[in-house]
Amino acid sequence: MRFSVVVEVRLREGVADPQGATIERSLPHLGFDGVRDVRVGKCIRFTIDSDDEAAARREVDELCARFLANPVIEDTEVRIGADVRTVLGR
Amino acid sequence: MTATVGVVLFPGSNCELDVIEAVRSLGGEARILWHGDRSVGDVDAVVVPGGFAHGDYLRPGAIARFSPIMSAVEKFAGDGGPVVGICNGFQVLTEAGLLPGALQKNRGLKFLCTTVEVRVESSASVLTENAEVGSVLRIPINHFEGNYTCSARTLADLRADDRVVLRYIENPNGATDDIAGICNDGRNVVGLMPHPERAANPMLGSGDGAVLLRSLLSSAGAVNSND
After folding, report:
1. Which residue of A23, A42, B78, B164 is surrounded by the most CB atoms within 10 Å?
2. Using the beta-carbon criterion (under 8 Å), do B104 and A22 form an inter-chain contact?
3. Which phi and psi angles does B195 have, rounded to 5°?
4. Cα gap A79→B51, rounded to integer Å
5. In chain B, pLDDT over 90 holds for what percent of residues?
6. Complex confidence, ipTM
7. Chain A residues 27-86 with CB within 8 Å of chain B
8. How distant, in Å, are the alpha carbons of B87, B139, B162 from that of B167?
9. How many other C-beta atoms are found inside a 10 Å radius of the C-beta of residue B199?
């Protein structure tokens, strides 16, 4: 079966995020007051052939650990579904 | 016998010729190691140079670490061979797990291209053995992701084991504990953000990097004479 995968790579809690901080500082100039906790990450989409969803998840978890994220500074959140619309809840 | 330094060339590396030129000007020999090769050959030291290996796609060093040459570099380092990663090379070595921690985007999000002062904090490494502890070197930096970061545990280990080899006098990029360069447990693998090869001749504005490259050459020579 083919599954759609969306991986969110984000900086771990407590790791400084200079991109997020810069965006946050610029928002009041644009009239957006009250926006806080801006964090910038990456979103990686792909499809994967696997026997079932559990097997797909195992493979994606390993892919994340070995390649898509640097565990020293990043965490990942993996979402898997039949197609990308389902994954994104649209 | 003259020590030979192998300089790894990835697609996107751009400091390999500077390293070769600097090494030769100091009396060493140097040659390119292609990223697709599975062996480092008979070199006495390895330098992973600066640049943008594989375009820095995903993260700096994330793709380069899986190059065939990196398995050979890992084995060379495991056998005690001197390995130095400069700038992007430092990023590659952390991604490959040869050095702890990671290099994040600079505080302030500025690409930094300037000359900084770094203090030699330890002479117990292949890159600093000829340098005097406490001496201050003027060496250029040229990076966007040079903000060294690591867990509190790793930082404690680095400090306790005297493995911070270079610190910035004025921290340019937000690096944890002003760290500009570190070494591994065995002290034969060193990573640093400043570019000693660009400060190997006073004609370039500073000759302060020469003492570091000379250290590497003498470490490489020591490996050589043990053969």
Report:
1. B164
2. no
3. -105, 90
4. 34
5. 94
6. 0.82
7. 67-68, 70, 72-73
8. 14, 12, 12
9. 24
